[in-house]
Amino acid sequence: MTTSSSERGVSLGMPELPAPGYPDDVRARLEADAREVVARYPDSRSALLPLLHLVQAEEGHVTRTGMRFCADVLGLTTAEVTAVATFYTMYRRKPSGDYQVGVCTNTLCAVMGGDAIFEELQEHLGVGNGETTGDGKVTLEHIECNAACDYAPVVMVNWEFFDNQTPDSAKRLVDDLRAGRDVAPTRGARLCTFKETARILAGFPDERPGAVEEGGSAGAASLVGLRLAKGEAAPARVVHPRDGGPHDEQQDRTVHHPSPAEHLSSHDAPQDSSASDPAHPAGPVAEEGE
Ligand code: FES
């Protein structure tokens, strides 16, 4: 017979296991939700990602208790669940605010002003990366590319897009969030709290009246490729100014050199958006001509 390290009073410097369970009433409620989620998949372990969102919706972050719950429900080890929960950055590992404000500081957003936005927000809020304001409202973090480079620099709040931001518009945004004012993203439904967002990501319907219809659609800049594929008007071509003039010998045709104003994705400064310009209230983004 062997004795455990805890019986011998030996600390291995690792979290004590098992984690405490949820109170009975919370566990019963979560088990009912979990059964609904698991039933959507042919293999129960495939439900791990939405279940992690479910426990995140309960506590605002993924705790050891939440991971133990997921492991129990799915017949996995806590090590397996921990490996997944720590791999994906959408799962928070410590308490967070009602609004997770993510500033994209990946290459394109960074050069278009994302770095400046992140710096100014840290100073404005008095928090660093991954930290939460004292009122528990805003958690600030820098995030990687969110595939919205055509609207750089981008800020996300609870995974909703705020396009073409500036340091001033971003500061106005966090001030509005902390003051409890209604805030609408450039694209997508009006904001809800981080816990509410996590429950939607777990696969439960957004019950807010009209929220689904507010989902929006791809913006004009994102649809340029689609329009080209359909044979619609081609945007101006980007040609390096040192190419030696407007004549393309290979094609034997005149090449048009667009000015920055003509080129769809060129602009010298971040453009106004529904979020950055209070004079233009947010609404669903429609394709040109609609
Ligand atoms: S670099 Fe920011 S969205 Fe792609």
Report what the structure shows.
There is one protein chain. By secondary structure, the chain is α+β, with helices and mostly antiparallel strands. It has eight helices and seven strands, in the order ααααβαββββαααββ. The chain has a five-stranded mixed β-sheet. The chain has a two-stranded antiparallel ribbon with strand order 6-7. A hairpin with a 4-residue loop joins strand 6 and strand 7. Helix 1 packs antiparallel against helix 2 and helix 5 crosses helix 6. The N and C termini lie far apart (76 Å). The N terminus and C terminus are likely disordered. FE2/S2 (inorganic) cluster (FES) binds next to helix 5.
Which helices and strands occur, and which strands form pairs?
Elements: H1 24-38, H2 48-59, H3 64-74, H4 78-85, E1 99-104, H5 107-125, E2 131-132, E3 138-143, E4 155-157, E5 160-162, H6 167-179, H7 194-201, H8 224-229, E6 247-248, E7 253-254
Parallel strand pairs: 1-3
Antiparallel strand pairs: 1-4, 2-3, 4-5, 6-7
Helix pairs in contact: 1-2, 2-3, 2-7, 3-4, 5-6
FE2/S2 (inorganic) cluster is lined by residues 104, 106-109, 145-146, 148-149, 152, 154.
